[in-house]
Amino acid sequence: MPRDIIELDLEAEADRLADRLDSIAEAEVDGEITSAQAKQLAGEVEQQMFALEEALDEYGADATWSIRAFTPGEKAELTGLISRAKEQAERAGRDVDVEAMLDNYWAGAGLVEAPFLDADASLQDRIAAVRDTPDPYVAQWIANRVTEENTLGNGRRKSYSERVAARKQDVSDEPTSDEPS
């Protein structure tokens, strides 16, 4: 049974990435992360945000974009395709950017609708469309969103890192012995 389809609003998604950049900047200023860590984290987020802005310019704010989570069978099929693609590249002696390849496969498999995608495209056609059409950072963003939808929990409960951050906040909010109760 296919999973629920998630409609994407590129303007809201670009705003979400901008908020993420604000969080990274705040963490750097507060000393929670180093400047080098902040630059590394921010670089990828910034590129995706700029790519979404370009996609908005190219396709318009009314363009339909949607993704979905995979069924177990689809995930197995995708894993098989990725393994075969890696083996073919190794046999051919080609140097392949595995991370980019994974983004293309993952994004193509989870993408339901996009301005550059033919209606009722097969899995291979969706992967090829993602590989050949959008900006690489749009493909990376789609892959990230598909990953979020295929991650257990999907935000229904706090992750470990969210629990650590909340605990640190609780500890910093506790009064010290010098402060009146």
Protein model, in words:
The protein is mainly alpha-helical and 181 residues long. It is 64% helix and 6% strand. It is built from seven helices and three strands. A three-stranded antiparallel β-sheet has the order 1-2-3. The longest helix is centred in the N-terminal third of the chain and has 25 residues, at 35-59. The protein starts with a strand and ends in an 8-residue tail after the last helix.
Per-chain topology:
Blueprint lengths: L4 E4 L1 H20 L5 H25 L5 E4 L3 H20 L6 H13 E3 L9 H10 L3 H14 L10 H14 L8
Strand content: 5-15%
Give the ordered list of helices and strands: EHHEHHEHHH
Per DSSP, the total helix count is: 7
In helices, the fraction of residues equals: 55-70%
Radius of gyration based on Cα positions: 20 Å
Mean pLDDT: 84
Broad shape: globular
Biggest sheet strand order reads 1-2-3
> Total number of β-strand segments?
3
Termini separation: 57 Å
Structural class: mainly alpha
Biggest sheet details: 3 strands, antiparallel
Uncertain parts:
none
